[in-house]
């Protein structure tokens, strides 16, 4: 992205994250692509986001959209591009918490059944997160998995289990607060 001048980038704050506000430099340009299926040229908007990681390394992401700047503001398009995080987070949870990447089936039909069960469990976890969002906004897939295992095996008391989850939420909230304070030192005054 060295060919773009500094004035061609637009600094936008997209949304809140657990590590502070997601802010990036965006460049939007209308491009034309060849659609092999329809055998036609189609207009797209190329969205380029430039951010810096916590290690101060440059990270550049590209995406196409069929939205246009006449229809949506640049802030809205940047927000839409950032929504991909939530899809990727669900896939990451399915792998790390539910083991979707650890199937060992021999037949296609068995694999389809396993994936369907995994998606059902993912839906259940999402439903529980949404249902408990008001009282437990930091409830995670890991918390729900541990609660289910606790209900099955009862290896500790109810109080110990809930204390374990609440302590994890307190630590997570402190990390979130610290990230915002690092971004905005004036907030601590």
Features:
189 residues; alpha+beta; 2 domains; 4-stranded antiparallel beta sheet; flat
- Span of the ends, CA to CA: 38 Å
Helix fraction by DSSP (H/I, runs of at least 4): 40-55%
Principal-axes geometry comes out as flat
The tally of helices reads 5
**How many runs of DSSP E, i.e. beta strands?**
4
Number of domains: 2
- Strand percentage, roughly? 15-25%
Radius of gyration: 22 Å
Word description of this protein:
- The chain has about 190 residues and is of the alpha+beta class.
- It folds into two domains: about 5-80, no CATH class; about 85-185, no CATH class.
- The protein contains five helices and four strands.
- The protein is flat, with a radius of gyration of 22 Å.
- It starts with 9 loop residues before the first strand and ends in a 6-residue tail after the last helix.
- The model has no long low-confidence stretch (mean pLDDT about 85).
How is the topology of this model organized?
Elements: E1 10-17, E2 20-35, E3 40-52, E4 58-65, H1 74-82, H2 84-96, H3 108-131, H4 141-153, H5 158-183
Antiparallel strand pairs: 1-2, 2-3, 3-4
Outline of the structure:
By secondary structure, the chain is of the alpha+beta class. The chain has 5 helices and 4 strands. A 4-stranded antiparallel sheet has the order 1-2-3-4.
